[in-house]
Design goal:
Layout: H1 3-12, H2 15-33, H3 36-45, H4 55-63
Length: 64
């Protein structure tokens, strides 16, 4: 079955079923992320200024 066929079938689903499908796809995405959310939370919660990046450093990272 092609992606186009899947999309066509999804369009025919009742709204409640599309919502359940959307929730299922989000849960799959969360499984794929693995440790990423926890790693990001640790970095965001880090209160040690020595581990922070300056705006200039961020600009340089984004340019490369």
């Amino acid at each position: 079955m092609s992606l186009h066929e899947i999309k066509t079938e999804i369009e025919l689903l009742p709204v409640a079923e599309r919502k359940r499908l959307a929730a299922f796809l989000v849960s799959l995405r969360h499984q794929e992320l693995g440790e990423y959310p926890r790693q990001m939370a640790r970095k965001i919660d880090d209160r040690s200024p020595g581990n922070w990046a300056t705006l200039e450093e961020l600009d340089q990272r984004l340019e490369s």
